[in-house]
Amino acid sequence: MQITPSILSADFARLADEIARIPSADGVHVDVMDNHFVPNLTIGRPVVEAVMAATDHPIDVHLMIENADRWAPEYAETGAKTITFHVEASQAPVRLARELRRLGARASLGLRPATPIEPYGDLLREFDQILIMTVEPGFGGQKFLESMLPKISRTRELAQRHGVDLAIQVDGGVSLETIERCAQAGADVFVAGSAVFTADDPDAMVRALAQAVAAAPSLGQVLLEGGC
Ligand code: DX5
Ligand code: ZN
Known about the structure:
Elements: E1 2-3, H1 15-20, E2 28-33, H2 45-54, E3 59-64, H3 68-76, E4 82-86, H4 93-102, E5 106-111, E6 129-133, H5 149-161, E7 167-171, H6 179-185, E8 189-191, H7 194-197, H8 202-215, H9 219-224
Parallel strand pairs: 1-8, 2-3, 3-4, 4-5, 5-6, 6-7, 7-8
Helix pairs in contact: 3-4, 5-6, 6-8
């Protein structure tokens, strides 16, 4: 189980200081947006590299950009631990996943809310992680989409059926209100932006989120124990 706060809701003028406020985090989630795949523009490779130089936390890059096949390998070359690209933005997701792994990154496939997981069951072994968006990508601070909970469970079941050891990350609207249901559904990597960086004590919020997950029975655990 991992909590990876998104710096999208942090103070972009003081990123190093902001990241220093979350020592209990398991990683730092960095949202790269190109104003085409989503209607928002954030940062690119130079800032990813600057963030990486400012922290020992593993970096989890979430690419919300068109033409992922062309650009994602550049982000793997930065040394980021995990690179998520969106299946809707890739012509050749298997080739790209293999390229990311060859460059030393964990390969992660992102799905917008309207994109089903079922067509990708046979491809799951090409990935280390699936990112299930629980808001429409583009902005922090949106309301969690309850309708994504069944997709999380179906992803966990598909991974189990295909015998793949897969991390399932949820991103969008994750907070103390919603994180337990995500964990119960089968998620095990949790991105939280506004919940962490609008808290008076961001690190206390990271720890509280982790405790909430630890207290929730997860579908992954139930499946492993043969209970379903
Ligand atoms: C949204 C980004 C998220 C965002 C989440 O498109 O991918 O990582 O920072 O923010 P919250 O947790 O506020 O929904
Ligand atoms: Zn994100």
